[in-house]
Amino acid sequence: MQHAPTTPELLRIARLSLLERVLPAVPAGLAREVRMVAHTLAIAQRSWAEQPEAMAAERWRLQALYPADLQQTTEALERRLATELRHWTFGAHAARENLVRAHLRQSTVEKLRENNPKALPASAT
Q: Which residues make Cβ contacts (< 8 Å) with residue 47, sequence separation at least 6?
């Protein structure tokens, strides 16, 4: 039985084909667009490969912030956090503020890892 490539593998193959075979053959005026599409494929590849782990980690962090609301969806917990951030209700609770800051920091790192990994220091990749 032959191994079927995974979605991240297919995206990688498409990106390499675009950069190695198509880009050299397109007029110079279209090269920027081809590189943009290749960059988008790289983002999609990283996103697809890391999505389950990142989503589980985000869910775990939100549940640590809202242990009484374990039945809520991740989206509902994100909306609740956004509301609390707008009103900054954490100032009186240092431990909770630390959890919020850690969650926001890690969420930012995960988004950068997916969308712009070159912007991260080597220790965060």
A: 114
What's the whole-number mean pLDDT along residues 76-83?
Answer: 92
Instruction: Give the sign of the dihedral formed by CA 71, CA 68, CA 51, CA 32.
Output: positive
Residue pair 64/98 in contact by the 8 Å Cβ criterion? no
Assess whether pLDDT exceeds 70 at residue 122: yes
| 23-46 residue pLDDT tens | 999 999 999 999 999 999 998 888
pLDDT of residue 1: 58
96-102 — which CB contacts under 8 Å span 24+ positions? Answer: 96/65, 99/61, 99/64, 99/65, 100/65, 102/61
* Contact criterion met (CB below 8 Å) for 19 and 38: yes
Q: Is 88 left (phi over 0), alpha (psi -120 to 50) or beta?
A: left
Amino acid identity at 101: R
